[in-house]
Amino acid sequence: MKQVAAYEHTHNGLQALRGLAFLFIFLSHSAKGVLASGGPLAVNIFFILSGFCLAMKYDRLKGETLITKEQFARKIRSFYSLYFVTISFMLLYRIIIEGNTRLSLWLKFYVIDVFLIQAWIPHKYFYLSLNAPCWYLSAWLFLYFISGTVFRIVDYYWQKNLKYYICGVMLLIQIIISYSVLHFVKVNISDNFFKYITYIFPIYRVFDLFYGMVLWKYISTIKDKNFDNRILFSLDIIAFGLLILVLILKVKNIIPRTLYYDIVWIPATLFLISVFYLQGPVCRIITNPISIFVGDNSSNYFILHYPIIILMESFLGKSVKAFPIICLVIIIGFNYIYNIFKRRLEL
């Protein structure tokens, strides 16, 4: 019974964090100002959380870390029908709004999106094509496919007690790549290429997957220890404070966007640790039935939110004060209707 309660406790915390991350992404597309600045942070949370949960799963499987064709196909089927509906809708929407003048371009986008390869094309018109945020799915599928291999590497170095060595090497490689690309951008091309490499490119996102898996390995070794509540309370406050600080620094343009992409994983990781233990005041506040509900449905909400925002913007405009709330209600309602139809088709 204690194990079941502990699992439910952990599950609720992680789902609440997933729900919070979705709301950050949703607001980055539907709101303005500080509320719209948390998108990259939320994306990092999603990727790190994926690595964390996959490592947790692989540890339970005791070494069975290879992703089979059936597992990969099942994972795609879990979201593809809704994803296909949204990109088809966006194709029709663009054709209706813009006419046939750019039909060939929209059809190219559609083909790329159908095959979920948009994150592999280093041009924003392609990786942000029809359902723009779904480049994440393109990158995430790659990470899911290689996750077993990454976990075996993490586990090997962990067993050899070389965890600090491999973490240091990975962090150094990330810094070298990031600042090498930044120098290349300053000399040769635009800032968009830096964003692609350090934010979109699936291979660069392996770092987030790695950090999530290392985080699980670390927590799995200390999770049964009894920590002073004051330590966990302090961690919670520090994690939340860093999160807010990073967002404010970005909004005020005190730190460049390029550096922002490199440091957002720090508050994301600390916040994930804090949520796992659920001892601090901030984490207890965000772990409520609403955020858990949003987290449980965040995959569908993520796929739905951008087309609905674009559609509602054409009708209402973002100047309407309640615009984000209206869009969120429609997203929840559409997802509810979609799930009803899906269950009936499965019967």
Characterise the protein shown here.
The protein is mainly α. It has one domain. It contains 16 helices and no strands. The longest helix has 30 residues. It is globular. It starts with a helix and ends with a helix. The N terminus is likely disordered.
Structural class: mainly alpha
Report the biggest beta sheet as strand number plus sense, adding barrel if it closes: none
> How many helices in DSSP terms?
16
What is the total domain count? 1
Q: What gross morphology would you assign?
A: globular
User: Which segments are poorly predicted (pLDDT under 50) over 5 or more consecutive residues?
Assistant: 1-8
Q: Give the integer mean of the pLDDT values.
A: 80
Instruction: Give the proportion of residues in helices.
Output: over 70%
Oligomeric state of the chains present here: single chain
Please tally the β strands and state the result: 0
- Fraction in beta strands: under 5%
Radius of gyration: 20 Å
Compute the separation of the termini in Å: 33 Å
H/E element sequence: HHHHHHHHHHHHHHHH
